[in-house]
Amino acid sequence: MLREIRLFGDPVLRTPAEPVTDFDPELRNLVKDLTETMIDAPGVGLAAPQIGVGLRVFVYNVDDEPGHLVNPVLKLEGEPEEDDEGCLSVPGLQFATPRAPRAIATGFNMHGDPVTVEGTELLARCVQHETDHLDGIMFIDRLDSRQRKLAMKAIREAEWFGQPVPEVRVSPHSTQRIS
Asked: What is the enclosing helix (H) or strand (E) of 149?
């Protein structure tokens, strides 16, 4: 099912997500919804908080290689390199963002099996970007102060900025309002 993507300014995007403890059908439905929403957007990655679910889950589709990761832990390698980066929660804007050139992410798949995702270039950037979402960090937080000021100005001028904030799902089983 397609889900609404939360936009910059929504508190769920700044709230660290909770670890997944139940690898159940609801989690599998969440992964399916994330994947469908990401593909429809279109994007190369989407984290659960971006659709209002406060769980440590993200999906990706880089170079036609789809995947997902639950409860990721990152190991980064190399000196940060800048490249343009955007975000479905900050539509239409891109900024040169520093990221490690190599990432190794360990975690689980939706069935609870251990998974390791190793990547360079776009996959490394995507894994770092989506894991940041799970920690309540947005890519603009990674910009230097000058670029961040420009990004914030562009966000404030965007037609989507300031939209009403819908409810937040902290787990697949409950809905609450964060304010």
From this structure: helix 145-157
Give the predicted TM-score (pTM) of the model.
0.89
- Annotated catalytic residue, options 130, 157, 159, 167: 130
Tell me, yes or no, whether 121 lies in a domain. Answer: yes
Does residue 81 sit within a domain?
Answer: yes
Domain assignment present for residue 173? The answer is no
Q: Is residue 130 annotated as part of the catalytic site, yes or no?
A: yes
Report yes or no: 136 and 14 within 8 Å, Cβ to Cβ: yes
Total domains present in the chain: 1
Q: Is 14 helix (H, G, I), strand (E, B) or coil?
A: helix
Q: What is the mean pLDDT of residues 138-144?
A: 95
Containing domain of residue 47, as a range? 11-158
- Read off the CATH number of the domain in which 123 is found: 3.90.45.10
pLDDT band at residue 38 under the 50/70/90 scheme: very high
Q: 133 labelled as ligand-binding?
A: yes
User: Helix, strand, or coil here: 155?
Assistant: helix
